[in-house]
Design a protein that fits this description.
By secondary structure, this protein is α/β, with parallel strands linked by helices. The chain is 46% helix and 20% strand.
C-alpha cells in the first residue's frame, strides 16, 4: 500500500481543518503538517518532506504562487497542487508556469480532492523513479 504524505497550506485554519477531515477518509493519505502562509510552507516542506503540498494562492506573508515557485526549485520531490476559488484559465496557466503539478478549485468534494492527490502523486512518482544518467 502506498502512503502519500500531504502538507496543507492555507491561511484560514477552518479550511485547513476541513481539508484534513476530507483526507482522513483515505487510508493511503496522511497529513504530516500544516502552514498558514507560503513562507511557513517552505520551512515545513524542508522539515517534513511531504510528497504533496496542497497550496492556497491568496495568503499573507508569501502568496501561494511565489511559494510554489520556490518549492519547485528547492524541493522537487514535493508536488504542489494549487487549491483555490480562482478557476480561471490564466490562474491555472500561471500556477503550472510556477511549478504546480496539479490544480483544484474550491469548493471540492473529498472524492475530488483524493483523486487529484493520487493522480498527481502517481504521475510524478514514475518520473522521479527514473535514474539519472
Amino acid at each position: 500500500m502506498m502512503l502519500i504524505k500531504v502538507l496543507i497550506v492555507d491561511d484560514i485554519a477552518e479550511t485547513r481543518n476541513n481539508v484534513r477531515l476530507l483526507l482522513s477518509f483515505d487510508e493511503e493519505i496522511v497529513v504530516v503538517g500544516e502552514a498558514g502562509n507560503g513562507l511557513a510552507a517552505l520551512e515545513e516542506v524542508r522539515k517534513l518532506k511531504p510528497d504533496v503540498v496542497l497550496m492556497d494562492i491568496n495568503m499573507p506573508v508569501m502568496d501561494g504562487m511565489t511559494a510554489c515557485q520556490k518549492i519547485a526549485a528547492l524541493y522537487p520531490f514535493a508536488r504542489v497542487i494549487m487549491m483555490t476559488v480562482q478557476g480561471g484559465r490564466e490562474y491555472i496557466r500561471k500556477a503550472y508556469q510556477m511549478g504546480a503539478k496539479g490544480y483544484i478549485v474550491k469548493p471540492f468534494s473529498s472524492e475530488e480532492l483524493i483523486n487529484v492527490i493520487k493522480s498527481t502523486y502517481l504521475a510524478y512518482e514514475e518520473k522521479l523513479a527514473v535514474p539519472l544518467p
